[in-house]
Amino acid sequence: MSKLGRVSVAALLAFVAAGLLAYFGLLPLALLVRHSFQGAEPFASYALVASRSANWTALRGTLTIATGAAAIAFLLGVPLGWLVAATDLPMARVWRSLLALPYVIPAYIGAVGWTYLLSGKAGWLDRLWTEGLGLPALPFSIYSLGGIVFVEGAFFSPFVLMAVAEAVERIDPALEEAARVSGAGPVRVWLEVTWPLVRRAALGGVLMAFLGTCASYGVPAVLGPSARPSVSVLTTRIKGYIDLHTTGGFRQATALSAVLLLAALVFPLAERAGGGDARAAGARPSARRPASLGRWRAPALAMVAGVFGVTTLAPIMALGISSLMGNVGRGFRLENLSLVHYWVVLGRPDALLALKNSVLAAAAAATLAVVIGTALALVAARGGGRFGAVLAALPWLPYAAPGTVLAIGIILAFTGAWGLNLYGTLWMLLVAYTAKYLALACRMAAAGIEQVHPSMEEAARVSGASRLRAVGEVLVPMIRGHLAAAWFLVFMPSFGELTMSVLLFGPDTPTLGTTLFELQSYEDPSAASVLAVLIVAVILLSNFLVRRLSGGRYGI
Q1: What is the pTM of this model?
Q2: 56-233+266-338 is a CATH 2.70.130.10 domain
Q3: N vs C: which end of the chain shows fewer Cβ within 10 Å?
């Protein structure tokens, strides 16, 4: 009877979870691919897209920026990952968290911060260089192809850093110790022992940085139009086609989106590559003696601090200072510091509405993702067999899909033709955030469930509790820390999301991301800096709560 109850409840959970996932997560992607083949001829949209030179320019721009960003992520992430995980670098754990902060802060916010520092003649660093030091004008502006590459590379470098650090921690310390005993120095140990064991993890992080840059919209949208010459990428071209509000434009947008979706299918390969060498893995990390940096300890610390200052601290501080400057034209002076922009922004009805929408949509998406993700993880871990494993893997498809691609699919699916008309409502954003980040909640819930032996639930079943009651009163309380961490892991990216929101929001559903983008691009950069500071503050607070609730196992 117990077995029958377990199977029936598992089957019910599987049916409900699979139905929700298929309808809200997989259907949009399938409709997007189908729509890209509609027209007079099956490949008419692709032929039209291929005939536009601007699209080839956007493709070249995408590949150039993604390649450059991946190279920067590799050059930063590999040495930094090794330093914070394998050496006696002072405060290594603190630096590891600080260097990984760009992982949780939206890259477009970093781009906005850099516009105050390097924007030709008006940037603060430009003025310090020319007026303060009396030197010729800097030849570099953040409004350029190189500027976009730099920002994307800096904000995607944590993919490589964390992959390398985690792979280093899985290496059996005896392998490195044997090399040291044999007389090898730190560099030789790294080249001949450590690097071969972490290479696959590092390359997996590089591939994820490459794909993430290909799917990025915010940074090229903030910096690209003002560059000379202007910089176009596939995501901004797709947005441009959508803004035409024509059938032909929408079909061309779906064709370009299908190309991006095809590229995103490489994501599982990146995940697999990120697993590292099998010889380096173990049941749990072994205690290791940090490699001594010796006389290189101080230079290494200076390098780590410098990288953090340039890639993360500088743009965030620029945003904070800009939000406090009463008159931007007067520059940074103590008498010019004021909270006037905060009072103005908090008094704007559109900003308050955007804040309300972002909080509601992100909180609701996090709640739904935790409920559905826990059900998927439970099916996979408690009797789902091969079907449960497949079901738990499916949420990674919407997660791997670029936000622009998923948003267009959601437009196709939920504008009335398939049962629901959500266009222009907050429900549209809720569906997008939940579908996009469901995989994060599923993975976190699975990590918690794996730590609870099924016998705990079986004991409750023997005492007369139903299967659902056993799950609710035994399993859920034991994994509540993981579920709370999962909630915040979905809430953080949803709260400041821009790529999907810019295509899905309506007149009554602006979000903080879309409002910040419009203020920065068209209206009031000072007000935009206030919203950026607010987003960063909420995300950092959420990250702190994730670490507290998970005992430091998750979060940055």
Answers
A1: 0.85
A2: no
A3: N
